[in-house]
Known about the structure:
Distance between the termini: 41 Å
CATH architecture of the largest domain: 7 Propeller
Number of helices: 4
Amino acid sequence: MKKTTGVVPFFTLCILLAALSLPGQSAWDGLQRLTGTWKLAGKPQFENWEPAAPGVLLGESYQLAPGGDKKTTEYLRLARLEGGGIVYQATAPNQNNGTAVDFPLTFFTTDSWTFENPDRDFPQKIEYWLQDGAMLRVTISGGEEEPIVFWFDKVPAEQLNAMPTLQGYDVFISSRNTATIKRFDAFTGQYKGEFGKEQIGGEAQDVAIGPDGMLYATSLQTQHILKFNPATGDFIGPFTSGYDLQQPTKIRFGSDGFVYVSQWGGSQSSVVRFDAATGVFDRACTGSLNGPLGQAWDASGNLYVACFFSRDIRKFSPGGTFLGVATAPGLFKGPSNIWFDPAGSGDLLVADWDEGSIKRLRPEGDTFVLQSIFATGFARLEGVAIGPDGFLYACDWYLNQVKKLEAATGSAVGVYLEGGDMQRPNGLAFWKR
Length: 433
């Protein structure tokens, strides 16, 4: 989309207010019928809409290559405004410096919705027209350009079920300042309550789903990993035994049958591990570290630990031998979480709490060096997780939000969750009901 400047004219605002005041009609309720996946007739091009936070629908336009590779062409968002209006926002990669373009709703009927921004070159108008709930016509027009019409068909349920989705999942978020675990419906964004305050005590840190399907949590004020039933929120009991943790923070279940815990205690600032099935203490995995947080493993089983205060990533052998600082100096202000590229490139991704960014590092000899800035736009960045739908979700600790990103490119999709009195979210975990 080409960028122009200006404001929405007064006559457009009048049309918007008139349309939204039509008696007996609800544009927002009608727009919920867009939810689902739509395929462009005759082409491997799709448009998908899903409910996100209350008052928000997130959309995505993408193409599928013959081999199944996905290329996102545009991120979309429908949002209700505080004044009662509705806005359609479009963000195209590599255009407008990655900023969204707003198209306010100016007219609607039972089955159609018109969004306009006459200050654009093209398009100035975007029209959605739903026919029989199974066919969608999208028309873009404006200026001297000829209108372009796209016809989409609703993807059948059996095909949709084969696609990765958040349907049927809950997402749990550790809320540090409320000392609770917040539960949301992962697909709709509906807040479903909180639990754990009595057991957590204060300063909730991280959450994870164990191999047994139970929910595990840490708090700076406990000496053990805590175990909860994710279906009910009921506290099962302290999980770990044989070792008292000091200020436990990040936890991660490894593929080797152990659960790893970073701790910040003055005399125990290190990473230790417990049997993932029994919770019995096994051994220390590192020596003393300066603010250990997130953990990750390479293909050889070497352990990498993000060290917040020393501002680096440290590497340890599977047996616990220190193999050196794994990152070039000066890359971070406060690394909080790390993970290896799920696509298998060998690149290491690092969330920087202080900078509010994610950096992509490539291996160069025995050291990882900066490849690119993968994502920005966070005030304070901590907990991250790859969702069941393949997207990356990240906690903005300061803004009390969870944001959604394209896992392969880091492109921002939008705000995924906010509300529910979430205060300083530290970590998140998805659980299939």
